[in-house]
Amino acid sequence: MTFKLVLSAIVILCLLCSNCKKPDNSVSKFTADELSKTDWQTIENKVRGTKVAFAMWAGDEARNLFFRKVATAKIKEKFDIDLQIIPLGDTAEIIAKLLNEKSSGKTSAGSVDVIWINGENFRTAKQGNLLFGEFAKHLPNLRYYDSEAGRRDFGTPIDNLEAPWQRAQFVLAFDTARFVEPPRDFDAMGIWIKNHPGRFAYIAPPDFTGSAFLRHILFHFGGGAANFQTFDEEIYRNASDKTFNFLNEIKPYLWRKGETYPNSTKELDKLFANSEIDFSFGYGANFASERIKRGEFPPSVRTFVFDSGTISNYNFLTIPFNAENPVGASVVINYFMSHEFQVEQSQQLGSIYPHKLSALSEAELKSLTILTLNAATLSDEELASHSIPEADSEYLSRLEKDWREKVLLK
Questions:
Q1: pLDDT tens, 136-173?
Q2: How far apart are the first and last CA of the chain?
Q3: pLDDT tens string 111-144
Q4: Would you say 347 and 136 are in contact if contact means Cβ atoms under 8 Å apart?
Q5: What is the pTM of this model?
Q6: Together in a domain, 33 and 153
Q7: Quick one: which of 57, 52, 32, 124 has its CA closest to 315?
Q8: CA angle (346, 348, 350) in 5-degree steps
Q9: In terms of domains, do 162 and 69 share one?
Q10: CATH of the domain at 247
Q11: Strands 387-388 and 310-318
Q12: Range of the domain at 85
């Protein structure tokens, strides 16, 4: 009798544990279309007590800490969702995994619910039918974003398969204690590099910041960003030939004579902070201010953009086709898009506030006053007037591949 009681207790306990923190079938089998047919409060109630796995690029320690501590706590407090952060060295890692799962027929119970994504990774995911569906148009907080933000991603039509999240713009940093005026186009930059051997470096592609630097050179030799919105073989061939000629011409004058390249923004920033090189750059307009605040850069550092402009784009959040908890993923994404979270993120990480001001209430507008600019951060007006669009993602793929063959290995 005692054995039977113990066995029964174990069976009951196992059944309870098997349901713990897992979405029920009504949640895991939810479709994108059902989001429009269900009250949002009902959706939020459905996912209480579940888990959402968020795969994100983990190349910035301050951002990693913010999401591990602040974001997970907010999601738990507001929705009783356990947010699990899955760090990625490159978003392509999770796309490759999804391609394998798709080919092997794993259409449910995937290991990831939300992916931070854009560019060629989104194009690959869309072409491979790796995404959940047209969920973005059903999110309440989409109203905060300009409609253009959700149209195209590096030339690829979005079709509501991902939701706009953050806005970024490429800026360069220099130290005014070393020199006052930086070169503001690539003709002047080439001269500067040759006159200051060993003092310039750029990050090796396929790091996205290093790739962005190359695209600026491509635009310079190809007549501007407007010529690169759809892929054209002749335009690419002509502009890339000049781009690689330029890069090979400056190669002997680079840090370590171009025999090796920094692999990350972290490495580039360290070289700059140690005065081994005279420029750093990043996709966050506030990146230098944040590093000054953390004591990594001296207070004399400032940022600038090229006279012809610098690339500005959005990055996005999406849900994979086999997400275990797509409804919970939708709730997390919608909160990450909220005014409250964007202000917190801008304040903590120095991210550009991405919402259109016309969508904000009076109270929300007032709350933006806490987002003060450091002297190292360019004004919104300066950034906006020097903002240029991204190229079609085919240019990115080709440029990264050809750089390796025609510059790195040459």
A1: 999 999 999 999 999 999 999 999 999 999 999 999 99
A2: 79
A3: 999 999 999 999 999 999 999 999 999 999 999 9
A4: no
A5: 0.84
A6: yes
A7: 57
A8: 45
A9: yes
A10: 3.40.190
A11: parallel
A12: 22-167+314-337
